[in-house]
User: What shape does this take?
Amino acid sequence: MIRQAFIIARREFLERVRSKWFAIVTILGPIGMIAAVVLPAYLSVRSAQEGFHVQVVDLSGRDVAGMMDIDLDAKGVSFKLENVPPDTPIHVLEERIRVQEIDGYLLFPKDTLAGGEVKYRGDNASNLLVTKGLRSLVDFAVFRARGTEMGLGELQIASLFQKVDFDPKHTTGQGVATSATASFVVGYVVMFVLYIAIFLYGVAVLRSVIQEKNNRVVEIMISSVRPLSLMLGKVIGVGRAGLLQLTLWGLMAALIVGFREEVLGLFGIPGAGTFEMPRIGAYDFAVILIYFFLGYFFYAALFAAIGAMVNSEQEAQQAQTPVMLLLIIPVLCVQIVAGDPRGGIAEVLTQIPFASPVLMPMRYLYDAVSPAEIALSIGILLVSLLGAVVLAAKVYRVGILSYGKKPSLREVWTWIRS
Assistant: This one.
């Protein structure tokens, strides 16, 4: 049986690896990674160079708007601020935004110094860098105006408003502290890549089963190999192709991140900054691949069973919904794990077999798990994987040769019990 399974696996692996689409997607992965590094930096530099045209309406009577010209480069974004008469109608300002004469307008109310709400309306208000930059300018202007009202000098105001350097870094006391933002990004990217890879290759197994079933090729293959061998071979073969692609992507990602300064330099963009990226070593990479392989096997077995149950891809789209929900729910819980990686909820989520393949590597990269937790999680996932394979094999054995009406849940239960 094992020999038959590996023969089928070799066929499935070579069929996918030799495909031109496999090569195209493998190449597009690193290109997308380079774009993810270069485009944000390029757009940030371009925005800073061009600046944003903002008109300012000051109803406070304290010339708060005039106190915003101290630093027009806030949070890395440049602004071109233009004071307009206080009686300028709002509809005129909104019309200027509509015709793209300005990017937005800033309105200081009469009670600005008493805590009144300063409003910004613009077509770029969804840009967090813009809103943070304007917020820093507004805070400084209002603080300066209040200081002037109290008779403080410019040096006193500047010293009071001088911000304290704040350096947040992620650490659990088990390793070197790294940039909090970088730690979150790396963990999130690993989680997302695992989710996409497990989903894509799991669906590839489902479609392969449906295709062979519709072409009646499976009837010929079943005459010479056991159904379980056929199912395992298909899952292993597609998984090997996915593992190869994921390994290549991981190596390219490590090179791109390690030489990000040089990559940005090739496009004439200033360096990526001084924040420290978390180091992903060979052991870390091995943990990620283990969870991918186990998670893929778990879900691919379920997808193979679904493919054997249905007769077309239209039916499969409905039948795969429960399995898809099992994979989507952990993704929706990513903020819980990232926000408190050593919390009780994160511990439970990363031990549940349908969630651990995507959430445990993320939590592991945050140095928030012990070797015992990793071992327990892998053990639970292995037991669940064996159960999923046995369950899927029983459904696959009968369903692969069943045609016509989609079986009911009672019929599927009969297949499992038989």
User: Anything to note?
Assistant: The chain has a mean pLDDT of 80. Residues 2-41+174-417 form one domain. The CA atoms of residues 153 and 298 lie 68 Å apart.
